[in-house]
Amino acid sequence: MAVYDIIIVGAGPGGIAAAVKAKEAGLNCLIIEKGEDILSGILSSYPTGKKVYPTIPKGISEDYSVSLLKPPEKKVTIEEFYRSVKEALKNLGGLNIITGEEFKSFHKEGEILVVQTNKAESRCRNLILAIGSNIPRKLKIYGDARPIARTLHDPNKYLNHNVLVIGGGNTGADVVITLSKLKREKEDQTKVYWANRGEKFKIVREVARDLGEEILLGGDIEILKDAKPVIGEVDESGIRRLTIRTEEYSLDDEIKRYRSMSFPMKNVIACIGFVGPAQIFEQLGMELMTHETGMKSELIILDENLQTSIKGVYAIGGAISPSYIKRSTDGKSNEVHHLNLIYTAVNDGARVVDHIASKLKGSITPS
Ligand SMILES: Cc1cc2nc3c(=O)[nH]c(=O)nc-3n(C[C@H](O)[C@H](O)[C@H](O)COP(=O)(O)OP(=O)(O)OC[C@H]3O[C@@H](n4cnc5c(N)ncnc54)[C@H](O)[C@@H]3O)c2cc1C
After folding, report:
1. How far is the CA of 36 from the centre of ligand 1 (A)?
2. 206 plus 295 within the same structural domain
3. pLDDT confidence band for 322 (50 / 70 / 90)
4. Pair 88, 186 in one domain
5. Are residues 47 and 167 in the same domain?
6. pLDDT tens digits, residue range 146-169?
7. Is residue 258 part of a domain?
8. Which of 22, 73, 192, 297 is 20 to 30 A from 229, alpha carbon to alpha carbon?
9. 106-110, 143-147, 186-190: which range is least confident on average?
10. Side-chain-side CA neighbours of residue 146 (13 Å)
11. Domain count within the chain
């Protein structure tokens, strides 16, 4: 049975970048992707028609290490980005990729890693986990929140309905912009309500610009600050509704009163983010550390080459965002903030493959 130099799990931006670099370095590489095509993670979590931003974290001057994965400055939709990446990979002669197969586990036989999927077993010297972070964060309410959509796939479905978008980040803003634009163009009189738990909305400059433009063009968007989803219940007509608390005011020192709004769950989209795969890493036997900055969370421990505590196994991209613990050779551990961006995933993939290529050529000693 062939022993690959590298097996990459996940054909998102990180996994593809790693595979392109491995091809350039003449390494024998296989990608395993559970979706039906490349970029499945992105295609299933982005709202349809979402513009893709080529954001590079502040203070970094290095460009994308794999240019075919850099979204153009003139923004394109996610569907156009997917097609351009597909075309560029075809021009490169394609990648060695198996789709529709899910990575489950691995074990070691000496220095060789035996990788198990739901269908087969493969062997490699190095394994890169580029599995993203697409486990939707739970909406903590009293009652059942399951019918609530987690992204926007068919904007037309929300025409002629007041819609509630929950989540004050970039994804929420993108959904608000897309819906508002459609309603405005179709002369639909219903509104888009945009709710955030806190006072401040956290969006990048490019998204803020698009939102401002949409409001100036007449988009009917009502912003609800400090709005908390509280209850999911079925009303007397059998409609599943979500109640959000929008304002608190006191009658006197003891009694609190709240204003609230209630929306049919079918008209609610909760863009409240995704959680990292800490549990998956733990099950695979990797070392994690409990960290308590802001929210208590389990973070994966990596060395300076993004190698996990298991030699030859690396983790990159969305899977190690928004932060991981870097353990230096002197044993010191520091939390590293790692933005969940296409840029970071791509540059992680390239960086890890450069390291593996040097290791395999014998120019560095495996750590
Ligand atoms: C709604 C939304 C909008 C965003 N907009 C932007 C933007 O405009 N610009 C930007 O820079 N970033 C944006 N991001 C972030 C960006 O998409 C991520 O940083 C990037 O996709 C991370 O790449 P990745 O390769 O690490 O993971 P992913 O893109 O998540 O890819 C992981 C892949 O691994 C596969 N996989 C997972 N588990 C397994 C398994 N067990 N076996 C096999 N395959 C598996 C998945 O199917 C998936 O294809 C956005 C994110 C979201 C959610």
Report:
1. 14
2. no
3. confident
4. no
5. no
6. 899 998 988 999 999 999 999 999
7. yes
8. 297
9. 143-147
10. 1
11. 2
The two tokens of residue 106 are: 């691995």
62 versus 279: which is more confidently predicted?
Answer: 62
* Rounded distance from Cα 32 to ligand 1 centre (Å): 15
253 and 200 within one domain: yes
How far is 26 from 123, CA to CA, in rounded Å? 18
N residues, the chain: 367
Whether 78 and 65 map to the same domain: the answer is yes
pLDDT, mean of residues 288-299: 73
| Chain mean pLDDT for the chain | 93
Position 151 scores a pLDDT of 87
Pick the more confident residue, 47 or 68: 68
For 185-225, what is each residue's pLDDT tens digit? 999 999 999 999 988 999 988 899 999 999 999 999 999 99
Task: List, chain by chain if needed, residues with CB within 6 Å of any ligand 1 atom.
Answer: 9-15, 32-35, 40-42, 45-46, 52-53, 55, 102-103, 130-132, 134, 171, 317-319, 340-343, 345
Q: Which of 196, 159, 164 is nearest to 181 (CA)?
A: 159
Distance 82 CA to ligand 1 centre (A): 12
Nearest 5°: phi and psi at 19? -70, -35
- Residue 21 CB: number of other CB atoms within 10 A? 23
Instruction: Compute, in angstroms, the gap from residue 209 CA to the centroid of ligand 1.
Output: 24
CATH classification of the domain holding 240: 3.50.50.60
Given CA atoms 174, 180, 185, 186 in this order, what sign does their dihedral have? positive
Same domain, 262 and 306: no
- pLDDT for res 366: 52
Contacts 24+ apart (CB under 8 A), 103-107: 103/9, 103/32, 103/34, 103/129, 103/131, 105/283, 105/284, 106/284, 106/313
Please tell me the predicted confidence (pLDDT) of residue 137: 85
